[in-house]
Specification:
Elements: E1 3-8, H1 15-28, E2 32-35, H2 52-62, E3 67-70, H3 81-95, E4 99-103, H4 108-111, H5 121-139, E5 144-147, E6 152-156, E7 168-171, H6 175-181, E8 187-190, H7 195-205, E9 211-217, H8 223-234, H9 241-244, H10 250-256, H11 262-268, H12 275-288, E10 292-297, H13 303-319
Parallel strand pairs: 1-2, 1-10, 2-3, 3-4, 4-7, 7-8, 8-9, 9-10
Antiparallel strand pairs: 5-6
Helix pairs in contact: 1-2, 1-13, 2-3, 3-5, 8-11, 12-13
Amino acid sequence: MTGYGYTLMTEQSGPRDIVRYAAAAERAGFDFEVMSDHYSPWLDEQGHASYAWAMLGAITQVTERVELMTYVTCPTMRYHPAVVAQKAATVQALSEGRFTLGLGAGENLNEHIVGGGWPPANVRHEMFCEALEIISALFDGGYVDYAGSHFRVDAAKLWDLPETRVPIGVAVSGQQSVDRFAPLADHLIAVEPEAELVRMWDEAAQGKGRRIGQVPICWDTDRERAVTRAHEQFRWFGGGWKVNAELPGTSGFAGATQFVRPEDVADAIPCGPDLEGIVEAVGQFVEAGFTDVAVVQVGDEGQEEFLAFAEEELLPALRSR
């Protein structure tokens, strides 16, 4: 049975609201919740970027059932992988086994802030592989020493190792990333409903794990208002990850999307009150072989109304599909 999730979009809501939405999403009946881990929003109009790990700690205490996940954390520049392992183990202990560590190779937008520059993609992949090896070794327990081309670890140990090992999901986009990262992870993460990507993962990972996707929507009782909000807040999304990974700040995303029209965004993101359009967009992931799909409700405005709609109409429609 497909799992349906709610996205805690840290770029578009403040920290107290994020925690409040997390509790409300559990009450609405979502199966899991994913949280972005950003130092900066994509666009100035979004206006937020609080520390994901502090919010996750709070959320473990206001929820009881729903699974939690980072979507995704980069463990290579802004955070050292040994510290990421400690964060994840702590959230797993606080949530009593409900946490999955979602990891990716990162974006310039968030990682350049520590002053280390932004390496080319092949170097980022090398760093990511080393980070995965370090995190996995720490999850195994005991002392870890590691000497790689990019990272060193000296007698590190997780002193509060949770009873349930933290599962690791990795963001992949093609054959190269699947081949490199699938052997080091438990679950697939992707933001496009590509059946071929799922097939490649299943082959490389020998069928193990979940395939977790994410789809943006902009529900509103007024379609014009929804289209306006989606264009203002989410026009960055259409650039694709090869572009999005390289731009260094909100001004870059503003410039890259200056000619994107509201109707262009509405063609890519279901906008307004159309239940069937949202169900169809989510269904594309299910048909491609994804086991779990998280929705992003675009914008902070109207989140409570969206969650009421999800409880009363959207989740029942998805589950009866």
